[in-house]
Amino acid sequence: MAWLRWLWRQLTSMRTALILLFLLALASIPGSLFPQRGTSPLKVSQYLRDHPTSGPILDRIHLFDVFASPWFAAIYLLLFISLTGCVLPRAFVHLKELRGLPPEAPRNLSRLPVHVQWETATDVSQTISSTQTQWKSKGWRVRVGEDWVSAEKGYSRESGNLLFHLALLVLLLAVGLGSGLGFRGTVIVREGSGFANNVTQYDTFTAGRLYSEAKMPPFSFALKDFRATYQRGGQQNGAARSFTADVDLKATPDSSPQARRVQVNEPLRTQGVTVYLVGHGYSPEFTIKDAKGNIVWQDAAVFLPQDGNFTSIGVVKVPDTVPQLGIQGFFLPTVTTDFSRGPKSTFPAAEDPAVYLSAWSGDLGLDSGLPQSVYRLDTTKMKRIGIEELKPGKSWTLPQGAGTLEFTGYKEWASFSITKDPGKGWALGSAISAIVGLSLSLLIPRRRVWLRMSALSGGGSLCEVAGLSKTEAPGLPAEIAKLALLVKNHAPEVSHVD
Amino acid sequence: MSINETLAQGSNFMVYGSITAFTGAMAAFSISLAKGRRLESLEASASRNTAASHQLRMGSTVTLDKPAVSTSLSDEGDRGEGRRAGNIGMSLTWLGMILLGAGMVLRGLSAHRLPWGNMYEFSLAAGFAVSLAYCFLSLTRDLRWLGLFITIPVLLDLGLAITVLYTESAPLVPALNSYWLAIHVTAAIVCMGAFTVGAAMSALYLVAQHVEDRVAAGLEPGKLGGLASRVPSADRLDLMAYRIHAFMFPIWTFAVIAGAIWAEAAWGRYWGWDPKETWAFITWVIYAAYLHARATVGWRGRKAAFVALAGYGAIMFNYFIVNMYVNGLHSYSGLN
Ligand code: HEM
């Protein structure tokens, strides 16, 4: 029992809390230096490929997902417990103190850092009571004795300090619970098509441990139009200047669509969910016919950008022909004639678009049962039958009688990140409280002032005013001087009391 | 919107002019330090320092007409060349700051936006914030002794800005196009400026404390004696450094929180352990530790000063290393 209490005392000391906080900061450093799975999974696999020996060891100790690692969680949890154990008892002590009175005046005031004295002939009890009212009216908490006044000010230092530390506690809770109760997903939507909020519609989806799918708000939206503008000319030629997505939002399945706009920095908020515009690209439209002239594929295919000028790659899989047909290719929004380094776009806007395609014939491998990426063609059981460059509106008669392909145009697509974090409001509230509390506790000194009157042997009394602050209080001497003057006005100095 | 090239050119002239002024200020401040003299002798500071703990226990009686601690160094003892050079340095610092401010205004006008959209502009703003913090603080006290230690970092910063970091005036990338840019980045710049002044004071405190300890132990002042004899006493430097840090800490907290609010609007989460966020958090923890250390017996003084300098180191790491070498979502360096 005794050692348990000892352990609790150690854990809840401010020193331990600070060490834990420091450890949290230290622990976050590798997270900023190694690629992290949560934000850049591709870089992590690249790193593992480049470092076949050290990589797996680093992975074993969670250096690629530091912020989800058990040791990070352990520090976080210990800090939370430590902070609770340290702040709550202090809060109760302070509450009691707020209702109490300052302590009695010390015997010997002359030892205090700020001290003045003078002799007066004024009556003691009269001086004490007038001092009491005057100091009180200056906002001091006052307690009086027979021949002394004790006053204190600056309780908001401790209130602020507690507010700050409590806010820290709430913040830790809000961050933890918010991510546990929320979810986060991404989805690519082409112009002219839509998205309904349902787990199956997401391209990627992660939910917190406490999240329940039944609570998925049933909104949907259609992407009407996406626009991007770019810098032309100069050092930053091609740099993006604006992105705008116009959507028709249906907050519930029965509500009528509402025109809304989503931009970078201006997400769409509905039903406690936030929709962010995070990326964009092109989807070329193809019409593919078989040898008999039947349409076997007609759609816009999502191509993924590979560089800042939106050189994009993608595939089309046509499973319904015999043999099966696969198209692999590049979409170049502004095509260059210089193909010596492979197909490349020279500007991100679609000024002179072209596709550069290769056609494959054979078995797409869709029946193997293994999941396949929609952005890659498995060519192990296929052979290439031809390559071609096409401008919009142009057709290509596929070799070996495989039919025709028409490049009819292109649409843009936008990718959205859709998140729900119920802890957000709490986190903001506690962060603001933390700043308020911090400012109070750093800028307001707690200070005490006393008046003590003692009878002099020759009649009259000695008036002493003194004060102190345990913390930095630059204005204290001046403040005490003012309080002393208030007393002196009632109890004027007499040079010799006879 | 297009770029006004004349204004962009004018901005560059102003920046070069301000570098010239700061260089002159640095020269004048070094002359002033070389010729200047301190009010209180090292011996007096040293003996006061050793007596301090004793005094704290005993309490000391002061009268009301004489404040307990003098709040400004008067320079009655410092006449002639040193003082004149210090005044010239001060005037040139004001000039440099005004020219730099004009350079930023022209840059902003040329691109029709706030002039802190890439690392070049952020560096100009940081240099401006440092000199502004210094000039502002020197309105109410004599800080000529600090001038050299302000103009050197400002010049390093501006030198780096015009050589390595220079980017042509251009509109903003969409991610930065938000009023949170004004709020979050302004707060961060102001903090960087003031923390630079605070770090300079903490570093000088370490020098002064080292020399005073030697003198108190009966040793020669040593190599740093010359410098220590021309700056305020260690306890005053410590106090000034503390006040700056304590005042700036809530503002830094605000800057981090404003960043989180912006991140929520821009990236869909208010905190995602992006490298830049991570280092802002580390900086915050270190400065929090400094404030606690200074209130803890056995840590105040030298150890606390090292913690403050570590905090400044984290700011520098975040600014230079993370911006230029670590890939994250914060994409404003404008460098490729
Ligand atoms: C980054 C985190 C923290 C900051 C910024 C912070 C800030 C502060 C500040 C400004 C004070 C007032 C110091 C003074 O009176 O001069 C203080 C005091 C205190 N803090 Fe913290 N604190 C932090 C973390 C913690 C943690 C994690 C704990 C405890 C578990 C804690 C416990 C205390 C206690 C007990 C005091 C009173 C100390 C005293 O009056 O001597 N603090 N803190």
List the defining traits of the structure above.
heterodimer; A: 498 residues; alpha+beta; TATA-Binding Protein; 3 domains; 7-stranded antiparallel beta sheet; 5-stranded antiparallel beta sheet; 31% helix; B: 336 residues; mainly alpha; Four Helix Bundle (Hemerythrin (Met), subunit A); 2 domains; 10 helices; disordered C terminus; binds protoporphyrin IX containing FE
What is the strand and helix layout of this fold?
The complex is a heterodimer of chains A (498) and B (336).
Chain A lengths: L1 H10 L2 H20 L7 H10 L3 H7 L9 H30 L14 E7 L3 H14 L3 E4 L3 E6 L1 H27 L1 E8 L3 E3 L7 E4 L12 E11 L9 E11 L7 E6 L4 E3 L2 E17 L5 E6 L3 E2 L6 E7 L5 E9 L21 E9 L19 E9 L4 E4 L4 E18 L3 H20 L3 E9 L5 E9 L6 H15 L8
Antiparallel strand pairs in A: 1-21, 2-3, 3-20, 4-6, 4-19, 5-7, 7-8, 8-9, 10-11, 11-12, 11-19, 13-14, 14-15, 15-16, 16-17, 18-19, 20-21
Helix pairs in contact in A: 2-5, 5-7, 6-9, 7-8
Chain B lengths: L4 H31 L6 H17 L22 H31 L7 H20 L8 H17 L15 H38 L8 H4 L5 H34 L7 H20 L7 H24 L11
Helix pairs in contact in B: 1-3, 1-5, 2-6, 3-4, 4-5, 4-6, 6-8, 6-10, 8-9, 9-10
The structure holds protoporphyrin IX containing FE.
Protoporphyrin IX containing FE (HEM) sits at the interface of chains A and B.
The rounded distance between the terminal residues' Cα atoms of chain A is 68 Å
Radius of gyration of chain A from CA coordinates:
37 Å
Helix content of chain B: over 70%
Largest interface: A-B, 67 and 62 residues
Total number of helices of chain B: 10
**Mean pLDDT of chain B, nearest integer?**
80
* Structural category of chain B: mainly alpha
* Number of DSSP E strands of chain A: 21
Count the beta strands of chain B: 0
Largest sheet of chain A: 7 strands, antiparallel
Bound molecules: protoporphyrin IX containing FE
Shape of chain B: flat
Give the strand content of chain B: under 5%
**Cα separation of the termini of chain B:** 23 Å
Structural class of chain A: alpha+beta
